[in-house]
Amino acid sequence: MSDTYEHHDYDVLIIGAGGAGLRAAIEAQQRGLRVGIISKSLLGKAHTVMAEGGMAAAMGNVYPEDNWKVHFRDTMRGGKYLNNYRMAELHAKEAPARVWELEQWGALFDRTKDGKILQRDFGGHRYARLAHVGDRTGLELIRTLQQKVVSMGIDVFMECKVLRLVHDSEGRIAGCVGYWRASGEFVTFQAKTVILATGGAGKSWKFTSNSWESTGDGHAMALWAGANLIDMECIQFHPTGMVWPLSVRGLLVTESVRGDGGVLRNSKGERFMFNYVPEMFRAETAETEEEGDRWYEDHNAGRRPPELLPRDEVARAINSEVKAGRGSPHGGVFLDIASRRTSEYIRRRLPSMYHQFMELAGVDITREAMEIGPTCHYIMGGVQVDADSQETVVPGLFAAGEVGGGMHGANRLGGNSLSDLIVFGRRAGIGAADYIEAGHAATSYDQGEIDEAINEALAPFSRSEGENPYTIQHDLQEMMQANVGIIRTQSELDTAAKELDAFADRVRRVSVKGARAYNPGWNLATDLPSMITVSKAATQGATLRKESRGGHTREDYPNADAEYAKINFAQSTSNGKWDGAINVVESPLAVMPDELKALLEEAK
Amino acid sequence: MAQITMRVWRGDAQGGDFENYSLEQNEGEVVLDVIHRIQATEAPDLACRWNCKAGKCGSCSAEINGKPRLMCMTRIDALPEGPITVTPMKTFPIIRDLVTDVSFNYVQAAKVPALLPPPMPEDGYRMYQEDVERGQEFRKCIECFMCQDVCHVIRDHEDNKVHYAGPRFFIRYAELEMHPLDTNDRRDLIREEMGLGYCNITKCCTEVCPEHIKITDNAIIPLKERVVDAHYDPIAWFGRTIRRKPKKSAAEAAVQPAP
């Protein structure tokens, strides 16, 4: 055991304090375990807070004909059948109970006339299904869970960056090592289990809705620790990010704008989405504007408008319109709700969008259209886990939320992320508790791994001639945006692979100025290895998947290929080094039971 | 494009001073963009907090030209011409540069007695929009802590921090006290230990709230009316009798039939 550094000891250690991490903590603490949560930011600031539209749960409050089977089917179709079917099934079945539970802890959702939780429409969901609070549902979720965690007295370690997971001599997870951002001092955590709940990885792209935190730390640490990553090529570019002013480019514009009646238009004023309805969704999509408009009033009076196709379809369509020269002045298209809904309605339903555009772009969305374009938003790929317990192949290591893989297949439906967090956060808490109760916990703690991580983290201070970490990050984002963006092709992916080797060299030469206490330059330098690992995994996955599916579009392989629907690419490392080679195997998808297959057949 | 001069406070608990940075102004930029550009070029160790860059997380609070603002929502072109001063929030101890130790707020959060609802019916509680709306206003709070920063009870009197929860937590208490399902009674606690009486409703908190929550009018004043003993304060008592809706019992609220 280390006595050099500040040290803590827990049964269940959770890395990440967003929705999944907090929900996991609640569950594990209720099992009587000692639980600690580590957060890279302050408590309550995690990326969950940015979620706007809502959380999907087939409660049937607005459309009683909704149920888990329809939700399961929508999720699988949205994911282009690459999903871990068992996760999609558990998610659809358990989401309603998880949402109701939040109300016991203080959440205040918008209501139906008869006092139930109101549900709103979103892309790819057959029925109005998203529990929400205006357009700030993520804030409601994180605040509710945060307040619950605090009231239970769970230990939260804020502004602590984790560098590495640590094993015991048998290869089980035994804890982690990190540093306090405020002081720059190192800290070690010993734990019987670790739950990764670190969120996403979008910060490797230039135009992203993700914050500085989303550097894929959990994805990378899991890979280095011996776990597998799957579907890393499947990255969601949300169709509607702000495009102007440049300083806010990528900032999210909620899908609720379309769910509440907003439409997309090109520079000629055409609702172009009618030209981009894929065969798979033709039967359930409106053919005319009039039919689409009727649907908003009553889902049985018409079919859904094509603006509410799954996100991958809409993002590609916008991309095509811009390429064809029908874009807006700043390289996006127009999102128009002003001409379709009253000012009062818009301000009540979309208060933070109104605020965001007014303050940052000087645009009054109740009077004029917004300029929007695709922005890197979510990574479907993540750590391969057992659907029921969220355990990885590394004993004692669990993963939940965006860092987990499989639930969303090749494309996530809007609203399925917040519900993912609470369904699988809880399951990870149960999984970790079961693991401990079965007596599997680690018995030792590898000091060598700690020393190595700390030496690596400190190295940038000793290089006087190296490169500024901000320059490397900036160039990496440019490169990934250009070569592994929304539309991919072999030559660009080859370029990216080669460039990433060069970036790894640059990271090995990065230099940091100043002291260790609250030094953002140093903090970024310690994030760069994760960013490189995640970028490499995404590039490699995108190279291998020679088809187009969901959040992975290949210009040179524009169609889906049924053979690729049967496999995930499972990536791993053999030496645990951040700049080591990534190995890949084809990992066959589990075969769906007939009763679930029938649900998908019925829907066709 | 015009040049801008940023005067940014740099230092730590031991002390510090302003440092000037001169940059070109880009169209549409906010203060946080400029701070980021300084970090990426001249001063990679310039400490600031930020996350969402969209006014939703409340991380990047600072005092811009002496006034508490979110750096991510303050457009450079909306500020008066001349040097722009950026300093850390004054009420909290300095960690480094623009980063302060806001743990006071987390200590206060841990003191709040949780919601205590009745058992939940099988298909969820019934609550009505008009009943949840009051609480929803307070739950818009993004915990930027600028109301705490500007509140003179603790801004100018450090020793008050031990017995004063501050505006952020008064809206939290108000939210719980107005919650249609809550059965907990926090009135003695709020009066005796949270220092509600220290607030003399100057509305500084309301003025700086980036979410435009009417902290004073909708939370603090009703809360004062609710907790102040009628014998002490006849005006509050009178206000209470004419304004306050009787709180439904939680059981009643939970099983209420549709209107």
Keywords:
heterodimer; A: alpha/beta; seven-stranded mixed beta sheet; four-stranded antiparallel beta sheet; 17 helices; 16% strand; B: 259 residues; alpha+beta; five-stranded mixed beta sheet; two-stranded antiparallel ribbon; 34% helix
Structural overview:
The complex is a heterodimer of chains A (604) and B (259). Chain A is an alpha/beta fold. Chain A is 37% helix and 16% strand. Chain A has 17 helices and 20 strands. Chain A has helices at 19-30, 68-78, 85-104, 137-151, 217-224, 256-259, 279-282, 289-297, 311-323, 343-349, 351-361, 416-437, 447-462, 469-483, 490-508, 520-544, 594-603; strands at residues 6-15, 35-38, 55-56, 119-120, 130-131, 155-157, 160-167, 173-180, 186-196, 229-230, 235-242, 263-265, 333-336, 370-379, 382-383, 397-399, 487-488, 553-554, 567-572, 583-588. In chain A, the strands form 5 sheets. In chain A, strands 1, 2, 6, 7, 8, 9 and 16 form a 7-stranded mixed β-sheet that branches. A 4-stranded antiparallel β-sheet of chain A has the order 15-10-19-20. A 4-stranded antiparallel β-sheet of chain A has the order 11-14-13-12, covered by helices on one side. In chain A, a hairpin with a 5-residue loop joins strand 7 and strand 8. In chain A, helix 15 (490-508) runs antiparallel to helix 16 (520-544). The model of chain A has no long low-confidence stretch (mean pLDDT 96). Chain B is α+β, with helices and mostly antiparallel strands and 259 residues long. Chain B is elongated and about 60 Å long. Chain B has a 5-stranded mixed β-sheet. A two-stranded antiparallel ribbon of chain B has the order 6-7. The model of chain B is unreliable at 242-259 (pLDDT under 50). In chain B, a hairpin with a 2-residue loop joins strand 6 (94-96) and strand 7 (99-100). Classes of the chains: A alpha/beta (604), B alpha+beta (259). Chains A and B meet through helix 3, helix 4, helix 11, helix 14 and helix 16 of A and helix 1, helix 2 and helix 3 of B.
